[in-house]
Amino acid sequence: MTISAKSATKTPKPVDGRRARSVTSRRRIVAAMATLIEGGDPMPSAARVAEEAGVGLRTVFRHFDDMDTLYSEISATIAERVMPIVIAPYTGEDWRANLRDLTQRRARVFETMLPFRLAANIKRYQSPFLMAEYTRVVRLERELVLRLLPDGVRADRTRVEALIAMLSFQTWRALRRDQALTVEDAGSVLAHMVAALVATMPGR
């Protein structure tokens, strides 16, 4: 394949300055929303976002017209933080050891996600993206537990469903928010509940 002199000397297309500024503004708005949500404001106002992002209020309103895209970008930034913990291989000597590892991971992941998932719960009935993401994450949480259990254990549906409920985000939310436990205490309670249930399960 050859390149003609005409094509070789062709002037590159100029960068669309307006588009570049829009992308930059969106990134700043996403970062600002994430910062405010993580700081305890589950529904930051456009004015607060504009101030945190250092952009005009009109710019924020323009991007707020497509909230699902903003939610998607915020979700992606959170996934970058937690997925390395979620997908790290398990190295325990048996499924019980791996389940203890999973319990510790859940505490770390859920604590990182806590303010964002609380915020998402407020808005998910108004957002197709957030509702779909909620369904996907709940399914993933369930599958990650089931993968660690031997066939003989999975056959005991009652105990398995109890285990999945214990290791759900809703349990962590209740421990941290409803019962106002510290991260350390919530982790200890979660580990105790799981250990007590696992002790009643058959299999090595």
The N- and C-terminal alpha carbons lie at a distance of: 63 Å
Quaternary state of the chains = single chain
Count of alpha and pi helical runs: 11
> Overall pLDDT, averaged?
90
Radius of gyration: 23 Å
The level of helicity is over 70%
Estimated structural class: mainly alpha
Question: In sequence order, what are the helices and strands, one letter per element?
Answer: HHHHHHHHHHH
Summarize the model shown.
Helix content is 74%, strand content 0%. It has helices at 5-8, 17-38, 46-53, 57-64, 67-87, 95-123, 128-146, 151-154, 157-166, 169-178, 183-198.
Could you explain the architecture of this structure?
With 204 residues, this protein is an all-alpha fold. The chain folds into two domains: 18-65, Orthogonal Bundle (Arc Repressor Mutant, subunit A), CATH 1.10.10; 68-198. It has helices at 5-8, 17-38, 46-53, 57-64, 67-87, 95-123, 128-146, 151-154, 157-166, 169-178, 183-198. Helix 5 (67-87) runs antiparallel to helix 6 (95-123) and helix 10 packs across helix 11 (183-198). The N and C termini lie far apart (63 Å). 19% of the residues are buried. Mean pLDDT is 90; it is low at 1-11.
